[in-house]
């Protein structure tokens, strides 16, 4: 069955540094991969999507890579700020009805 | 636009009681979903709907029923609540347009079954 692993339940970094979060998946081949942010007590919010034929996608301070050979996506936040502290979820997708999320990585940016 | 709203925000049930959670979206989205989120388990799909009048099972459907009589509403029912159904429930919606399948989530319902 499909398995999604987000390495590190929790990640602490200093303000201004780059945070790198990892998402590994097994037993399926997603056509695209989404990343969501979730703040405590709130629903997830969509951040970025990257397709299987894209190696890298950027949005402001966010960068996502997608390596279909390694079955891995990396999510980077550059120049991190305390406001970036949240849980980040990855969701590799094969289509609209294949809806699995990773368990998330809780990021804390220390001032 | 209110986006996705969920009613109620909190609920405490006794074992064996029933209840219905209501999800509403005002974005004219075709797809709607119900998830539960438990510590260490992540988001797990309970049921989903690809259009008015249609529903399908997700990863953990046992003990739940759903209905989508109107495009904007998706109801999640618990017929006989069990302590294992204590969780935070999220509703989400998405559209076929754009093919990114971005999901818009509601604020969640925290359910405790004693």
Can you put this structure into words, describing what you see?
With 111 residues, chain A is mostly beta strands. Chain A is built from no helices and ten strands. In chain A, the strands form two sheets. In chain A, strands 1-3-8-7-6 form a five-stranded antiparallel beta sheet, with no helix packed on it. A five-stranded mixed beta sheet of chain A has the order 2-10-9-4-5, with no helix packed on it. With 114 residues, chain B is mainly beta. Chain B has no helices and eleven strands. In chain B, the strands form two sheets. In chain B, strands 2, 4, 5, 6, 9, 10 and 11 form a seven-stranded mixed beta sheet that branches. In chain B, strands 1-3-8-7 form a four-stranded antiparallel beta sheet, with no helix packed on it. In chain B, a hairpin with a 5-residue loop joins strand 7 (65-67) and strand 8 (73-78). In chain B, 35% of the residues are buried. The chains are: A mainly beta (111), B mainly beta (114). The A-B interface holds A 4, 32, 34, 36, 41-46, 49, 89, 93, 95-97, 99-104 and B 4, 31, 33, 40-45, 48, 50, 56, 58-59, 90, 92, 94, 96, 100-108.
What order do the helices and strands come in, and which of them pair?
The complex is a heterodimer of chains A (111) and B (114).
Chain A: E1 3-7, E2 10-14, E3 19-26, E4 32-38, E5 45-51, E6 56-59, E7 62-67, E8 72-77, E9 86-93, E10 105-110
Parallel strand pairs in A: 2-10
Antiparallel strand pairs in A: 1-3, 3-8, 4-5, 4-9, 6-7, 7-8, 9-10
Chain B: E1 4-7, E2 10-13, E3 19-25, E4 31-38, E5 42-51, E6 54-57, E7 65-67, E8 73-78, E9 87-94, E10 104-105, E11 109-113
Parallel strand pairs in B: 2-11
Antiparallel strand pairs in B: 1-3, 3-8, 4-5, 4-9, 5-6, 7-8, 9-10, 9-11
């Amino acid at each position: 069955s499909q398995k999604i692993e987000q390495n590190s339940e929790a990640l602490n970094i200093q303000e201004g540094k780059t945070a790198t979060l990892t998402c590994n998946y097994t037993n399926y081949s997603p056509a695209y991969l989404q990343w969501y942010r979730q703040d405590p007590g709130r629903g997830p919010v969509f951040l970025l999507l990257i397709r299987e034929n894209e190696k890298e996608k950027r949005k402001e301070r966010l960068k996502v890579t997608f390596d279909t050979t390694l079955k891995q996506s990396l999510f980077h936040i550059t120049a991190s700020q305390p406001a970036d502290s949240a849980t980040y979820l990855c969701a590799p997708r094969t289509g609209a009805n294949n809806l699995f999320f990773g368990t998330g990585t809780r990021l804390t940016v220390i001032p | 636009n209110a986006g996705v709203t969920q009613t109620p925000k909190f609920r405490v049930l006794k074992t064996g009681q029933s209840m219905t959670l209501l999800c509403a979206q005002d974005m004219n989205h075709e797809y709607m979903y119900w998830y539960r989120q438990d510590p260490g388990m992540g988001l797990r799909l309970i049921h989903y709907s690809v259009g008015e009048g249609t529903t399908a099972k997700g990863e953990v459907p046992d003990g739940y029923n759903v209905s989508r009589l109107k495009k904007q509403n998706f109801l999640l029912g618990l017929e006989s609540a069990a302590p294992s159904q204590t969780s935070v429930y999220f509703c989400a919606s998405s559209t076929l347009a754009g093919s990114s399948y971005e999901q818009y989530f509601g604020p969640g319902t925290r359910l405790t079954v004693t």
